[in-house]
Amino acid sequence: MRRIFVVGCPRSGTTLLQSFLAAHPDIHSFPETHVFHRLRAPRGLRRAAGLAAAGATQRLDDAAGWLGVPRARPLLPTVRRHGAAFLAMADAAARKHGAGAWVEKTPANLYALDLIERLVPGALVVHIVRDGADVVASLCAVAGNWGTTYSVDTAIDQWTECIAITDRYRGRERHSVVGYDRLVRDPEGTLTELCAALGLPYTEAMITGREAAARDLVKDFEHWKSDNAGPLRDGAGRRLDEVFDGATRRYVRERVAAVPVREVGSGG
């Protein structure tokens, strides 16, 4: 079973990439589970003992619902047992749909890659990177839907941090990096290269079936992701113009330009 994780800064196109992959006939995917990045307990006795964070079992139960399989509850509430329980459910869901691979897409798993690599044998990780100005504008525009707010500086800092994490993993075995803009402008070329890195054959169904796949991946309340179920659009710079005034646009561009971002394709 191939186990694939899509990660990146929120609003970087993780759902779009997931939708392309989910349309592959040998890949099964499902809505975000938030299992791994919330699996470890905060520092303290619970973490020192290897126990999972409070609420981890409930997240497994929720994941079982999204996966459409019987829930798996570990006998011991450890991080390792919870990870194994999730893998058993995800593998079962993929087999149920006749797939030899599955994709888990929770952007914040970017912060738990060390844990994923320890708990998931052969984990394949796909990072997606998007222009920082567009990410910042989108974060500021949709954060209210998440019950929070982003200042411009907070959004820039988060994007910068995510880029730095991806750069630390770039070039490692089983890690691929996809550029959002290239994915939108040349989906066939980008996905062909990515499939080769994942050990899967490229198929045109990844493009023709993307919109339908997206509708199965977005939860009812996640209306900020609704564009993923529509036609593919190259909107580089559009979000920035929609959200900010001229002075703020200039400030965002200046700060983002100071962050070194390596050219990305679908390889390392």
UniProtKB/TrEMBL annotation:
Keyword line: Transferase
Molecular function GO labels: protein-tyrosine sulfotransferase activity
Keyword Transferase: yes
Keyword Transferase: yes
Pfam families referenced in this protein's UniProt entry, alphabetically: Sulfotransfer_3 (PF13469)
Superkingdom of origin: Bacteria
PANTHER family for this protein: PROTEIN-TYROSINE SULFOTRANSFERASE, PROTEIN-TYROSINE SULFOTRANSFERASE 2
Protein name as annotated: Sulfotransferase
Organism: Blastococcus saxobsidens (strain DD2)
